Amino acid sequence: MIRSRHVLLLLGLFVLAAVESPNAAEDDAAPSDAVSADEAGKFLPLPLFITEPAIGEGLGAALIYFHGEDRKEGLKVSTAREVSRTTRRSKPPPTATGIFGAYTNNDTAALGIGHSNSFMQDRYRLLAATADARINSSFFIADSAFDFTLDGNLLYANLKRRLGDSSGFVGFTSSYADAGVNFKTDLGAFKDVPLLDFDFIDVGFALSLIYDTRDNTLAPARGYIVDLTNWHHDEAIGGDFNYRNLTFKANSYYELDSKHVLGLRFDVAASDGNPPFFAEPYVKLRGIPALRYQGETAGAAEIEIRRRIYDRWSASLFGGVGSVDASTKENETKDDIRTVGFGVRYLAVKEQDAWIGIDIARGPEDIAGYIQMGNAW
Prior knowledge:
- The protein has helices at residues 4-8, 12-16, 80-88, and strands at 42-50, 58-66, 96-104, 109-119, 124-141, 144-162, 168-183, 198-212, 223-233, 243-255, 260-273, 297-308, 313-325, 338-349, 354-362, 367-373.
- The longest helix is centred in the N-terminal third of the chain and has 9 residues, at 80-88.
- It has one domain: Beta Barrel (Porin).
- It is globular.
- With 377 residues, the chain is mainly beta.
- It has a 16-stranded antiparallel β-sheet with strand order 1-2-3-4-5-6-7-8-9-10-11-12-13-14-15-16.
């Protein structure tokens, strides 16, 4: 599903995914590890090669700073029971901050900053971001493209609270977007009349239930994540729209042997009320532009097999199918929504298990390439 915050951060959250640092699995360490020396912070400069079909091709730059860890602030393991809990729980994501800027050949541009943190012995996890962007893209009616520009800024914050000592979380998210939409129409003498243009404020909040056992958030080899999120956008809280979005996703990872990992992905989204055109759910698959296939309900299923080639290199093959349920004929499409592709990854920062690489995917209409930070899901 796409919301205003997703449109405005189409470029930005790709970079800020790096801020959601890996949850490397805890080793069965002795309690003395809790008083080891502090881990120094590390910078990760990242050139961006933008290849998303919905916004064109372009370049950018990001700088991610993984803050140093104070081992003395880690989980305390003074009893046998606490040692058991620690070994079952994945390592909390380190504190990290990222800034970015990017520009594409269709005049899309974005600037932003984000921050991630976990605190109170990983009982809480925080992700916050702000961005200013101009997005030039298209949405489709009956397979016909309509070009538009969305220009504005966004504030976004997500806070998750761990449920006891489990791998479950309850989350609260808020978003605020102040932007304008301009349609690039060609109506002869009336082509300069803003018949469909509008400015808007979109305010939303969401509640989530999450169960996450992945050993690593950037390149998982074991475990799964299940996420049920309900978004509510309302004029009563300061926005211009009244609508709801419900999303469900389930990703699982299986370590077949020391070199091979199998990944399975399923997600579905549904909308209700009167969402703006950019807030309708859409099929999210590599090889398909954002907003290409939209409806009241949209979903996708994907499979990926990843192979470790060398110490710092891996390669993958993947394929997926998507579906859309639209109540109006204008949103129907006769295309089979299938994709297939391959990718490579390089371990750029070994201490943080930060992988970067490229995916090439073939969709129903074209071939697209993507620069990725870690796993595409």
